[in-house]
Amino acid sequence: MQKLEVFQSIWAMERRRPDGQEWSLEDQVTMVAEAGFDGMDIYTFAPEKSRAVKKMLNDAGLACSCCAFPKSIEGFQADLDMAAELEARHLNIIVQIYPLTVEEGADILARMLEMAETSGVKVIVETHRDCITTDMLYTLQLMESLPYMKMCADLSHFVVGREFTWPVPTRDEHWIQQVLDRSVAFQGRVASREQVQVQLDFPSNRAGSPSSASGGKTVCASGAIAKGLTKPSTSPSNWARRPMALPAATATSSPTAGKSPR
Asked: Is the pLDDT of residue 168 over 80?
């Protein structure tokens, strides 16, 4: 039986204020718990910070998932080891290796998925810019070559990378549906064709505004929003301190991500 869980991304809790003031890790975990999330998505490449957050999540009765940006096959083992230590629900990878052919890319991902299976870590591959899945058509060919590979759909990058128009052409809808059909996790945010995450309460991004119409900033739903998987809205007081109208979140619903049929 599948269970939907929604995790708040730790990077989306960064305020990026000019004065450098950030929320403490304790405050971040408290806000995530009060908002009703199931946990947080944390980094494998920041072990001390992630260990501290994991302890706080445990104390709050919350879980974690992990993300990583592996730059080599050999270095990927460290990400797997950290995800296992943190007892992550899954490890979401943005693979920063840049093959020139589908055959090379499929071989790289097959080896990484085999490592994950050996390590007992559920791995999913995210659609993201500046990585092995940058291009949507190349990604579709990788998916065809590796039918057991599970995906994390962050469609916002494809919306920008392919400069989606409105209405979305049937051809593009078909390609996106293929990604969604293979995905077991979804990044929940809204993109325009110029920006991977837009501020929804800006007048220019509101439905019906001149810049959100055809020929302007086309606003497209991504991932969890497209499938109606976002967490129910919480009271405004819980999110009054947040810097974004729509927090980036990962929704996941599969217990078998990263497992090959072998």
From this structure: yes
